[in-house]
Amino acid sequence: DGNTITGGGDGISAYGAALDFLEPEAADPGNTISGVGGEAIVLNTWGWGNTPASSPGSLVAGASTTIGPAVADCIWATGDGVGVSLTGTTLDGCGSSALFLVGNGSATVSGAVITNPGNTGLRIASGTMEINSGTTINGTSASGLSMTGGIVTIDGLAITGGTTYGLNLDGGELVVNTADIAGTTQNGIDMSGGILVGGAGLGVSGSGGDGLRATSGTVTLSGSNLSNNSGSGIELTGNVEANISDVTLEDNGGSGL
Question: Which residues of the chain have pLDDT under 70?
Answer without folding.
Answer: 1, 26-27, 49-53
